Automatic annotation (TrEMBL):
Alphabetized UniProt keyword annotations: Carbohydrate metabolism, Cellulose degradation, Glycosidase, Hydrolase, Polysaccharide degradation
Top-level enzyme category: hydrolase
Gene Ontology MF annotations: cellulase activity
Organism lineage string: Bacteria, Bacillati, Actinomycetota, Actinomycetes, Kitasatosporales
Protein name as it appears in the record: cellulase
Family: Belongs to the glycosyl hydrolase 5 (cellulase A) family.
Highest taxon of the lineage: Bacteria
Gene3D superfamilies named in the record: Glycosidases
Domain spans labelled Glycoside hydrolase family: 1-224
UniProt catalytic activity: Endohydrolysis of (1->4)-beta-D-glucosidic linkages in cellulose, lichenin and cereal beta-D-glucans
Gene Ontology biological process: cellulose catabolic process
Length: 261
């Protein structure tokens, strides 16, 4: 990890560290699992916050990837309340590194309504994550297209005109209402050109993000994501020109690398 972080930051790339899964075997609904206790989860984040404290291009922690299933938001149950756990972890991290941004993903449902894993942030309205260190929370949603799962809204007669209302309901309202910083932490798909529903969806989402100035990180750079493919093709060298053409509509300019690099 040190080598990867140094390689990225020496080239001017900002790094967000992410607990994508608790071990090498698979993802988990909650931020802890049978193989990873909640204490170890928090201790690991504190260790990383200390380790990279002096590298100002390591900017924060995405505390857990795609809380879902058992995960709740704001109900006060210490075993399942993701909002409560994110608050505790964020405060623990800031005791050793006040500069880090704390990225908090959504859950997969609000009340009885299902959405994408990590994509539903409706709970923020009544139960925001409030840290002792102000202005350090970034809410992060995941949102996908029909190539991952063919949700009802992709088959609506008014698709893709129906999509902005869905995005706004579940996560984009946070930016539109100026509640907090918002990152669309994951979205992607194999098809970006042509008239397939996935290509139409991806381009509509890019246009929406640009219109409302919502930041994003695209899934994914590497080609071996089965659902989405990558910006790199299967040889790990060739760039998918169609994906880059779409992303170039709304892209942060290249950062300046450290002098001498």
């Amino acid at each position: 990890m040190d080598k990867i972080v140094k390689g990225a930051t020496d080239r001017g790339i900002r790094v967000i560290l992410d607990q994508h899964r608790p071990d090498q075997y698979g993802q988990s609904e909650l931020w802890y699992s049978q193989s990873l206790t909640e204490k170890q989860w928090m201790d690991d984040w504190v260790k990383l916050a200390k380790r990279y404290k002096n590298n100002d291009r390591v900017i924060g922690a995405d505390l857990h990837n795609e809380p879902r299933g058992q995960a709740t938001w704001g109900d006060g149950n210490p075993k399942t309340d993701w909002q409560l756990a994110a608050t505790k972890a964020g405060d623990a991290i800031h005791k050793v590194n006040k500069n880090w941004l704390i990225f908090v993903e959504g859950t997969d449902r609000h009340k009885n309504e299902q959405f994408w894993w990590g994509g539903d942030l409706q709970g923020v309205k009544k139960h925001p994550v409030k840290l002792k260190e102000p202005n350090k929370v970034v809410y992060s949603a995941h949102d996908y297209g029909p190539g991952v799962y063919n949700q009802n809204w992709f088959m609506a007669k008014d698709f893709p005109k129906n999509m902005p209302a869905i995005w706004e309901k579940h996560w984009a309202y946070i930016k539109k209402q100026n509640i907090a910083p918002l990152l669309l932490g994951e979205f992607g798909g194999k098809k970006t050109a042509g008239k397939s529903s996935e290509a139409v969806w991806q381009n509509a989402l890019m246009d929406y993000l640009k219109k409302h100035q919502i930041s994003y990180t695209y899934w994914t750079w590497n080609p071996d994501s089965g659902d989405t493919g990558g910006v790199l093709k299967n040889d790990w060298k060739t760039i998918d020109k169609n994906k880059m053409k779409m992303l170039a509509k709304y892209q942060t300019p290249l950062l300046e690398a450290k002098k001498g690099k």
